[in-house]
Amino acid sequence: MTIEKPIYLQKIKQDNMSVILQQIWEHEGISRVELVTLTKLTSGTVTNLTQELIQLGLIREFATSSSAIGRKRVKLKYNTDQFMIIGIDISRTSYELILTDLAGQVINSVEGNTIGIHQPEKILDLIAPLIQNMITYASSKGMPVIGLGVSIPGPIDRKSGQLLTPPNFPGWENFPITSTLEKRFGLRVFIEDDARASALAERWYGLGRNVQNSLFITMGMGIGGGVISRGELVEGANGLYGQVGHITLIPNGLLCACGNRGCWETVGSIPGILRRWSVGDSIDDFFHAVHQEDPHAVQCLKDTLSDLESALTTLFNTYDPEIIVLGGRLYPYLAMYMDDIRSHVKDRIYSFVRDRLRIENATFGSSQNAKGAVALVFERLLTAPLQMLTTDNAKEK
Ligand SMILES: [Zn+2]
């Protein structure tokens, strides 16, 4: 009991800090009085915890003048230039690394391809010096890197920090990426599958910043998703919540890597569209044929868009989000059809929500995954600031 009590109190303290940090992030500048009202914490607790957060370097005071009487008011906001975060996106054929401040502003970035490299160790050997350069640069600016976020094709095991059996990603099965990077750099490492990382990018830095319920869908070589409910990315019993690519669209259709038949991914992903077209193996060529008004390509596109509308309608009815965000490598090709897609989906949902639902495109383009990797670390900082800033050992997270 004498041991448990301080740990318990420490947890309450950290949870209260987290509530305060989330409010400061949402409001981009807030007074202590407003914090007391919004968090329902006592003014003494808000005073003490904000003071400690200032000492940790995470937030700072700034003065605003109240318009009517010109009186100065003290507000709190993030010290975004005190720490840095590195976001690492490893895809099946490329990588992207970004060094950002706490607000996700990119300070440095580097990308390259990994075509033909199938051993994880070789890919990490390739990017390790680049990561080290970023860590050294951040130190030279007096803004230490507080963690590495990794976006990678799933499924992954978050507890053990390793990949499970990602399809079309040979050599990565059961690879312990988290511990490998932790050992190499002595920093905390967090991994998330690319679709869910992309959802976090929107949650913290993009369209979902002030939205409690959102659905992110990424369309590319596969179709993935991430569901944010009450501000949190939902995991589900097996970390498979929001695997939107595996809803059945074609009864008794093609066998999918997940074991089901006729998943949306089998017809709506880039390989799915090319299989349906069955004329070439390049998505650029497919859309070129569409723009040349080749009747077969046009019909394939119509079927693809119809599937997308059916999927969006089903997913809206399943998750009831305020906003659906679409991204991924395929999205730029579909962007020009979005007005029609929006209107068709809205025709198929309850009339009283038609004007409320927003269907938007992802904020960060081809850097969505890397930004999501950064958001993963930022979210951890908001959830567990004491652990992130006051303990050195990466294993203690
Ligand atoms: Zn499937």
Low-confidence residue ranges: 393-397
- The amount of beta strand, in percent, is 15-25%
What sequence of helices (H) and strands (E) makes up the elements? Answer: HHHEEEEEHEEEHEHEEEHHHHEHHEHH
* CATH class term of the largest domain: Alpha Beta
**Portion in helices:** 40-55%
CATH fold descriptor of the largest domain: Nucleotidyltransferase, domain 5
Strand order of the largest sheet: 5-4-3-6-9
Q: What would CATH call the architecture of the largest domain?
A: 2-Layer Sandwich
- Structural class of the helices, strands and pairings? alpha/beta
Work out the number of β strands.
14
Question: Number of helix segments?
Answer: 14
**Silhouette:** globular
Quick one: biggest sheet?
Answer: 5 strands, mixed
Bound ligands, each once: zinc ion
| Assembly form of the protein | single chain
- The Rg value, from CA coordinates, equals 23 Å
Mean of all residue-level pLDDT scores: 92
What's the CATH superfamily of the largest domain, by name? ATPase, nucleotide binding domain
Pfam families: ROK (PF00480)
Family: Belongs to the ROK (NagC/XylR) family.
InterPro entries: ATPase_NBD, ROK, ROK_cs, WH-like_DNA-bd_sf, WH_DNA-bd_sf
Protein name: Xylose repressor
What does this structure look like?
This is Xylose repressor. Pfam families: ROK. Belongs to the ROK (NagC/XylR) family. Transcriptional repressor of xylose-utilizing enzymes. The chain has 397 residues and is α/β, with parallel strands linked by helices. The chain has 3 domains: 75 residues, Orthogonal Bundle (Arc Repressor Mutant, subunit A); 144 residues, ATPase, nucleotide binding domain (Nucleotidyltransferase, domain 5), CATH 3.30.420.40; 153 residues, Nucleotidyltransferase, domain 5. Helices cover 43% and strands 20% of the residues. The protein contains 14 helices and 14 strands. A 5-stranded mixed β-sheet has the order 5-4-3-6-9, with helices on both faces. A 5-stranded mixed β-sheet has the order 12-11-10-13-14, with helices on both faces. A two-stranded antiparallel sheet has the order 1-2. α2 crosses α3 and α4 crosses α5. The protein is globular, with a radius of gyration of 23 Å.
